[in-house]
Each structure stands twice: as structure tokens, then as C-alpha cells.
Design a protein that fits this description.
Elements: E1 7-10, E2 14-18, E3 21-25, H1 27-37, E4 42-49, H2 52-63, E5 71-74, E6 80-87, E7 90-96, H3 109-117, E8 120-124, H4 131-143, E9 147-150, H5 160-169, E10 172-176, H6 177-186, H7 193-204, E11 208-212, E12 218-222, E13 225-229, H8 241-253, H9 258-266
Parallel strand pairs: 1-4, 1-8, 2-6, 4-5, 8-9, 9-10, 10-11
Antiparallel strand pairs: 2-3, 6-7, 11-12, 12-13
Length: 283
């Protein structure tokens, strides 16, 4: 018998369609997998199409150790994909296809029960781009005892009004430096963290805010204090945001000191996702 879930992740699971093949992706999927790797009981709430890509994603999550009973299968919408194109001499471009199955996550009794029984609900702005999943999320936010907003702004897939509402509902928020600057710009406030974080917390009633800076430094505002952690000397690549959040939440549930939670989440690189199924050819 499985352990009771303590963290519920609500959101997108999809395929990243690369020139070299397709790779499982999605904000909710990545955080859920990392939580499981850290030994944390987790439930993933999402939807895939009743198609071959959906069945492959279900097999992938099962291989990764996740339970699939809260991943719905849509008869009317296809499994989500991101189409990535590489350009010579220029940055890659990508398109998050819509609408897809995870835009239509239904608020079933099983989903509501899982969220009520979880200690945390994790969600991002992307899953709220479409009315159906957005309304499901809004209802679940009423049931969740502790709400974690993993902001993840994706151009053309969010509105200011929805992001502000999701901030207002949150207890803990994780965002990067660019997202902090953009949101503070909407509110006509300075983006300097020492000023922005306490102002943002007061404006939206937030308990905790985490910021990942471009320099690799991480910040955490909690109980009117700002904690900082410089990048690790051995860190040779950008901090993995999904693993940072998963690690932070695991330690947060154990009621570790905020500074220790930040240090541990900021200085450990994400382990590889160890599943049986490798990247698949797009052909």
C-alpha cells in the first residue's frame, strides 16, 4: 500500500518535440519527479490525450515511480506538446501548442480529495491559461491547506489579472529575477529585492517568497527577513528551478530553518531522472 501523498502537483505534462527527438516535459511533471526522487510522497494531477503520446507519457511517469490515477485521459483533446525549432546563429524558438488535454483538467471528487489530504498544492501560471483548468485550479485553491505558486511566466500564455489572483491565493511563491521585475513593473513598484519582496508579501499576503537570480544567487523572504545564498563554487550550470523548488519544499515540510532550506535547495544539483525509457525519435 502506498504512503499517503503529502504534496499535490497540479499542471502540465507534455512532450518537448526537439529536432533530435521528443522528451517528457512540463512544470508539474518535473517538480513531481524531483519530489519523488527526494523520497517525498507526491500526487500528480494533470491530463493527457487518449492517444499514443498520452500512453507513452503515462508509461514514463510510471517508470519514474509516480502514480497515474489522477492523470486524466481526454477523449476530445490531444496530449500536450511543445514544438522547438533551432535556428543557426540565433536562440531556439518554441511553441506551446493549445488547446491540449491539460487545458481541460476536470475537478473530480478524487482530485479534490487528494488536494484536501495533501499538505501542499503546487501550481504554475501556465496551467491557468485556459478556462477549464483555470476554474479547476481556482476550486482546488479553496481546498488546499498550503499553496505554492511556481510562477513560470510563459510569453503569450498568461494574463496580469490571473497572475495577480494566483499570487493572492498563494502562501509560498517561487519566481526568477526577470519575473519579479515584470510583476513589480505591473504594480509600478521598484524591483530591487530588498524593497520588492516585503512589499509584494504585504500586497498579496504571502508568507514566503523565493527568487532565483541570473547570477546564480538565491533569495528567500520569510517572516520579515531576507536570506541569501551565493552560487556554489562547483556549480558549472544554471540552477535547476524545479529541483530547487522540490528540495525547498521537502525541507520546508520538515520545518528546517529557512536559511538551511535555502542553502540546501541552492547548492545541490538535480539528479538525473532515472527511468527505463530514453528520449524517443520524432520520426
Amino acid at each position: 500500500m502506498s504512503l499517503p501523498a503529502t504534496i499535490a502537483c497540479f499542471g502540465d505534462i507534455l512532450w518537448d518535440m526537439l529536432p533530435t527527438g521528443r522528451r517528457p516535459a512540463g512544470d508539474a511533471l518535473r517538480v513531481a519527479l524531483h519530489l519523488h526522487q527526494l523520497g517525498q510522497p507526491v500526487q500528480l494531477i494533470s491530463s493527457v490525450g487518449d492517444d499514443e503520446l498520452g500512453r507513452e507519457l503515462l508509461a514514463y511517469t510510471a517508470d519514474g515511480g509516480l502514480e497515474n490515477h489522477l492523470i486524466q485521459q481526454s477523449k476530445t483533446h490531444l496530449t500536450g506538446v511543445v514544438k522547438t525549432t533551432h535556428h543557426h546563429g540565433r536562440a531556439a524558438s518554441w511553441k506551446i501548442v493549445e488547446p491540449v488535454a491539460w487545458d481541460y483538467i476536470q475537478c473530480s471528487s478524487a482530485v479534490r480529495t487528494a488536494v484536501r489530504e495533501a499538505q501542499m498544492l503546487v501550481y504554475s501560471s501556465l496551467v491557468a491559461r485556459h478556462f477549464t483548468s483555470r476554474e479547476t485550479l481556482y476550486r482546488l485553491l479553496l481546498d488546499a491547506p498550503f499553496k505554492v505558486f511556481d510562477v513560470n511566466l510563459r510569453p503569450q500564455h498568461y494574463s496580469r489579472e490571473v497572475v495577480k489572483y494566483l499570487l493572492q491565493q498563494a502562501d509560498l511563491v517561487k519566481l526568477n529575477e526577470q519575473e519579479l521585475t515584470e510583476i513589480m513593473g505591473w504594480l509600478n513598484q521598484p524591483a530591487e529585492p530588498a524593497i520588492a519582496l516585503p512589499w509584494l508579501a504585504g500586497r498579496f499576503g504571502l508568507q514566503t517568497i523565493c527568487v532565483l537570480q541570473e547570477t546564480g544567487c538565491t533569495l528567500l523572504w520569510h517572516n520579515h527577513e531576507i536570506y541569501t545564498c551565493p552560487p556554489a563554487a562547483s556549480q558549472d550550470k544554471p540552477l535547476n528551478g524545479s529541483f530547487f523548488l522540490a528540495s525547498l519544499l521537502v525541507d520546508w515540510l520538515q520545518q528546517r530553518d529557512p536559511a538551511e532550506c535555502l542553502r540546501r535547495a541552492s547548492t545541490v544539483n538535480a539528479p538525473p531522472t532515472r527511468v527505463e525509457r530514453p528520449i524517443l525519435s520524432s520520426g
